[in-house]
Amino acid sequence: MNGRRRAFGKALVDLREKRKAGKISTNGKSRPKLCDADGLPRLDQILCGDSIQVLNDGPEGWIDLVFADPPFNSGYLYHGYDDRLKTEDYLDFSRQWMTAVHRALKPTGSFYLAISDEFAADLCVIARRELGFTMRNWIIWHYTFGQQPTRKFAKSHTHILYFTKDPTSFTFNADAIRVASARQTIYADARANPKGKLPDDVWYLRPQEVPDSMFQPEGDTWNVSRICGTFKEREGWHGCQMPIEVLKRIIAASSNAGDIVVDPFNGSGTTTVAAALQGRRYVGIDQSEEYVGFARARLSHACEQMSATEEQPFDLAGKLNDPARASRVSTLTDSLGRPRVERARRKRTA
To answer: Is the pTM of this model over 0.85?
Structure first.
């Protein structure tokens, strides 16, 4: 553990020095602006920039749905960003970007925030008490393959806070996200709604809640695990990749075809990919040119696969997660700044 800490500390020092010297390597050099000459947002793009500035420079009330998975201030080594701010600085940063989100959302807009234990309550208070969001649900996404600590219980969940700008006027497509109920599958109760039931606010996505093709017995992902290093879905260049099934549900529930979906912390690009495949317009924003470049490649691959087949978007798992896809690359170091070591897979024996 001491070696890991030393490696992480050295990596952060190196990162700060490179940022000061302007030596951070980049792949996403194209920096289009959010708005055109008439002040209208350019859609279906991933932008490189500060999300607070980008959103505040744009018009008010143009976004239908925001999904945000911001840095958790947990010390993770993102490209070009120091994730170890003082608590008051992190809360002020969160207040600023959520204020920008509130301004940019339509009056009927929705806002989902993925956040960890440490700051979930703080950010909920800021969103509700200070900014005026209405809270609809405090969702718990329970996942498998959580990190295994030695001096506390294993962490196996993320909070997803669901807000709307208006308490009564917002989009919620109940029929688009219904799942089979126990009354139907176990008890054969004639009183059960034939359309199924709405999901609970604890998301443990069982096989009956997703398309069959996503959960074959030989598949990588079950019950919506975190995206681990060996999974075919993992892009490899970003350590905090959100499973596309989580975004699929959020986008289906809180937006309609043609609506505008924005992710102010685009990261691995899952939100923009899910939005494009579900017929939504989208804008992703990220501060790292390197992440933007890779995310654009991932989005391009997904759109090409969708255009080349008549399959439904989320029946494309095998094609979207092709191990040979150009967007799937590994960074030279992990989130602790240590050189990556290729794993030798063990052959299974009887």
So the answer is: no
